[in-house]
From TrEMBL:
Function of the molecule: Catalyzes the biosynthesis of guanidinoacetate, the immediate precursor of creatine. Creatine plays a vital role in energy metabolism in muscle tissues. May play a role in embryonic and central nervous system development.
Domain of life of the organism encoding this protein: Eukaryota
Species per Swiss-Prot/TrEMBL record: Saccoglossus kowalevskii
UniProt record similarity statement: Belongs to the amidinotransferase family.
Pathway: Amine and polyamine biosynthesis; creatine biosynthesis; creatine from L-arginine and glycine: step 1/2
Name of the protein this chain belongs to: Glycine amidinotransferase
UniProt keyword list: Membrane, Mitochondrion, Mitochondrion inner membrane, Transferase
Amino acid sequence: MLAIRAFRGGCRGREAAHLLGTLLRPLRNSVACVSTSKITQGQVATQDVQAEEAPKQSPVWSCNEWDPLEEIIVGRVEGAHVPPFTVEVKANTYEQHWDFYQSHGGQPFPAAHMAKAAAEIETFCNVLEQEGVTVRRPALLDHSKEYTTPDFKSTGMYAAMPRDFLLVIGDEIIEAPMAWRARFFEYRAYRPIIKEYFRQGARWTTAPKPQMSDDLYDHDYPISNVQDRHKLAAQGKFVTTEFEPCFDAADFIRAGRDIFAQRSQVTNYFGIEWVRRHLGDQYNVHVISFKDPNPMHIDATFNIIGPGLVLSNPDRPCHQIEMFKRAGWTVVHPPIPDIPDTHPLWMSSKWLSMNVLMLDSKRVICDANEVPTMKMFEKLGIKPIPISIRHANSLGGGFHCWTSDIRRRGKLESYF
């Protein structure tokens, strides 16, 4: 049976161990547990493994979220369509938006709103280029086309959030399998760029593509209210089952040799175990959890912005936070977001305010409307570069989600 060394102190380790033992019995190796060795902020942990330089021939190299940024992929607004209102979409959205999905599923997002979002993303790209960052964009696709597999039918969604799909570990690009049927063929928008990187020396891996049959989803998943969601998440129960590996890349956050992942509505333990085995002994994949009724993507909940420095969402406390504190990390709780209730956030929460993009350890791109958040960064000695992508936020992501960093100048080191 799979042995799980689960975190204690408020987390549901027993439930997670029981669930994994039942559903993933053939998997024998344990998921890595967080080390308790002490380090101070900015100090690299002393380990037997030496720091590794970027391969000379590869254009891809990114080991964490804060080394100096040199090249990045930014998503596209163009062609974005509302996903059909299937069970996995319903479980990841809030009740006040269900009418929107029921009436607009399979159709383009509102045109006037998207025009403003597209202009915001163009400004974002221009600022990145002015800061010396090479910007790449995915290909344009027709996401309105209906496609059929032996297991389901769907229309597409978008290629707006590269962070959801691409997991960059060192010189390797891993294509995530995803969990929404509307995103099954999203990889096609990124293939021209990935093939180019591969020809130049990057490593390229595609995770096992799930069937996305009915067996992957709990069609009786009770999601009528937040209280039910809290109870289910605490018990380790989600709309995705353990039928086959699935994960979104955005459920992983990187700190050198330590990768932190969460079990969520789109990422199952089977998928996390696949990543752990694929990366091998060179990396430690840690499973962490949060008091979150609707976990989906980690970077608006737990965003590592420097060596031993993390933004931790005060509304979604981490069950294992004491482990980070004992290891010498500085845990910062960002201020309450300023975004008004009237602004449409069809696919996300207000906490996109903490979904920032580090240009390096001393410069951050953040929301121009979030003045308290900018002041927080200034107190941390980090210079804010303010941009507004408020209309682009409506598609489900902040600056971190809208991007996937391809190359950061630095070494592969240990910080935990």
